[in-house]
Structures are given as C-alpha cells and as structure tokens.
What we know:
Mean pLDDT of chain A: 91
Low-confidence stretches of chain B: none
Order of helices and strands of chain A: EEEEEEEEEEE
Mean pLDDT of chain B: 93
Structural class of chain B: mainly beta
Strand content of chain B: over 45%
Shape of chain B: globular
Strand content of chain A: over 45%
Number of helices of chain B: 0
Distance between the termini of chain B: 36 Å
Largest sheet of chain A: 6 strands, mixed
Order of helices and strands of chain B: EEEEEEEEEEE
Number of strands of chain A: 11
Radius of gyration of chain A: 14 Å
Low-confidence stretches of chain A: none
Oligomer: heterodimer
Shape of chain A: globular
Distance between the termini of chain A: 38 Å
Radius of gyration of chain B: 13 Å
Helix content of chain A: under 10%
Number of helices of chain A: 0
Largest sheet of chain B: 7 strands, mixed
Amino acid sequence: GQQLNQSPQSMFIQEGEDVSMNCTSSSIFNTWLWYKQDPGEGPVLLIALYKAGELTSNGRLTAQFGITRKDSFLNISASIPSDVGIYFCAGLRNYGGSQGNLIFGKGTKLSVKP
Amino acid sequence: DGGITQSPKYLFRKEGQNVTLSCEQNLNHDAMYWYRQDPGQGLRLIYYSQIVNDFQKGDIAEGYSVSREKKESFPLTVTSAQKNPTAFYLCASGDLGTGELFFGEGSRLTVL
C-alpha cells in the first residue's frame, strides 16, 4: 500500500535553532499537509499545499510541495520551546470524487535539548 | 465556540467489555472520521462517514463499530473482538477532498 517516509523520527532542538523535516513517497500526491500534535491533544493543521512546487509560509513555518509531487518538507526557523510536539505530514490523493485517500506519516517528534 | 468534543478523555476497560467513545462536532461538517494512534505510528483510519446514516470502513475497522444517526455525532464502539484495543483514539471532521481535518482532543483507552 501507499506509505509516507517521514524523517527524522525524532530530533532535539535548542531555542533559536532552525529545524527541517521531510516526507517522501514512491507515490504521487495531489495535496501535501503538515499537522502538529501537542502532547495529549489532537493534531492541528499547520500548512496545506495544493500545487507542485508551491512554497507556503505560516509565521516561522515554511513548507514546500516537491516538484515531483512525491515529497514535501517543513522548515521551522528560530525555534522556541512551544515548537515541541509531533509533526505529521499527510499526503492526499483524489480519485475524482469528494472522498480522497489521506495517508499520514509516522511523525517527527521535536524535543528540547537537555 | 466551534469545535469537536471527544469524551471521555481517559477510559479503562476490562477485557471482554465493549466501550463507546463519544464524538460531537458543531462545525457543520458533513464528514467525520475516527483514527487510531499508537506510539511511534502515524494515524490509521478506522471508520469514516460522509453523510448521516452512511459510513465506510477504513484501513483497520475489524473489532470496531460506528453509527451516524445525527450530523453532529459519530460515536465509536470498541468491541471485545478488537484484539489490541489499548490506544489513543482521535475523532475528526472536515473535508477529505482537501485533507483539511479538525481533530478532537482524543480519548485514551486502556484495557486492564
């Protein structure tokens, strides 16, 4: 079946550092999305990308829809403590109807360096 | 305030018992979804419903059941047939045509 390979699985950040994570697949997707999950909460949508090559920002977050439509990356600039959590990528394939096939990556866990 | 409400947030169950998780939304979304989350795993789709009185199985529907009698409500029953029910369960509503989902705060089920 379709799978998304999200990396890294986990990373430690120090306040002020830039962070990068990415998602790749062997399949083409129509839409890429990035969600963040705080501990004990449900995921919240951060950024949605709808066109190959699209680069979109949301505050300190920047995400890109890969030109091949098989990958996406998320950058966080100048990280702050509240950036910790789990970041999920998700790829969507539409089959002509309203119901798409949404696949989630396994997540990148961001923690603060001890 | 608009949103999705899941209850209970924590639930303990003995083996062999059925348990029902509640999900209510006031976002006026037609579609609602149930996902299961295990540590280190992504979100796996259990069931979804695009309209009242209709629902479809997701990737891991075995051992679960749902109903959709009202637009606002989509309860999930974890039956005794589910072999490994301990997990974090997430309800969502939104538009799977765009992938933009709104999630509840989750329900953590522990089987003792």
